[in-house]
Design goal:
about 300 residues, N-(1-d-carboxylethyl)-l-norvaline Dehydrogenase, domain 2, 9 strands, alpha/beta, 2 domains, 14 helices, NAD binding, Rossmann fold, six-stranded parallel β-sheet, oxidoreductase, about 15% strand, three-stranded mixed β-sheet, NADP binding
């Protein structure tokens, strides 16, 4: 069974499935690092963007993965991962034995465990490797990458991860990356909610918001979330870097996983409901910093 080429060989041939807000800049960073990237997605304009960056567009998923040493998937949720992985036109039926499948989507831990087991029967290795950092982190190649799977596969994939992110950690066996990502999304959602509440409190108190957020971010209340989302709050700019729809999905994942292991998430449960409420009000396509809109509605400053 042929694995990924060693450092003395050419770089591995990469197949990239899913060229959305995160997938497009991430695939482009691999191209910049010298990788041969063949991509497939459903939107022609995303394929055009890939070819303009120096990649190759494939007309089908099977075509994209057939000759790949390494297959990376970045799609919205578990149903999409299952749709591209299984079936006669899916990855497992068309990738060659020995290929390494890296799923960088944010999905349920159990989906990752099941995928690894099914792939093993086909001689295909799997890592679950969800990321944190949003669109900006993807563009700047500074993502945090939390990985589940075998150490040997992780070590083999490390150079690819290093072209995409800065904090790269093997968290445990299959599914562990997804579990850590679920915890990440819990922390991010609660943090954004706290920042949103502080913004409304500060504005209603007549404080200079820019000055207040600057000094807060320099102390213990500072965070990557506040650094990344400060301008969103100040400018009410909610163009999606990470959509409420996707964070709603992730809060469902962490809530279900916590229930399974018997962990209480009292604050997380409230924030999950606030995210769901915002989505129900038609804001699902906005950036998750739009949680500010929900706090403004509750405070009587937004219709």
């Amino acid at each position: 069974m042929r694995g990924i080429p060693t450092m003395s060989d050419n770089l591995p041939k990469v197949s990239w499935i899913g060229l959305g807000i995160m997938g497009s800049p991430m695939s482009e960073n691999l191209i910049k690092a010298g990788y041969d990237v063949t991509g497939h997605t459903l939107e022609q304009e995303k394929l055009d963007r890939l070819t303009a960056a120096g990649g190759t567009a494939a007309s089908s998923l099977a075509e994209a993965v057939r000759d790949a040493d390494l297959i990376i998937t970045m799609v919205p949720a578990s149903p999409q991962v299952e749709a591209i992985a299984y079936g006669p036109d899916g990855i497992l039926e068309n990738a060659r034995p020995g290929a390494l499948l890296i799923d960088m989507s944010s999905i349920t831990p159990q989906t990752s465990v099941d995928l690894a087991a099914a792939a093993r029967e086909k001689g295909i290795r799997v890592l679950d490797a969800p990321v944190s950092g949003g669109e900006a982190g993807a563009v700047e190649a500074v993502l945090s990458i939390m990985v589940g799977g075998e150490r040997a596969d992780f070590d083999e994939a490390k150079p690819v991860f290093e072209a995409l992110g800065k904090t790269i950690v093997l968290c445990g066996p299959h599914g562990s990356g997804q579990t850590v990502k679920a915890a990440n999304q819990l922390i991010v959602a609660v943090n954004i909610q706290a920042c949103a509440e502080a913004v409304v409190f500060l504005e209603k108190s007549g404080v200079d918001l820019t000055a207040a957020l600057d000094v807060l971010n320099g102390g213990l209340a500072g965070s990557t979330v506040l650094t990344r989302k400060k301008d969103n709050f100040l400018n009410r700019d909610f163009q999606p870097g990470f959509r409420i729809d996707l964070h709603h999905k992730d809060m469902g994942i962490v809530t279900d996983a916590a229930r399974t292991v018997g962990a209480a998430l009292p604050v997380g449960a409230v924030v999950a409901q606030l995210v769901a409420s915002l989505r129900a009000q038609g804001d699902g396509g906005l950036d998750h910093s739009a949680l500010l809109r929900a706090v403004e509605r509750l405070s009587g400053t937004r219709a």
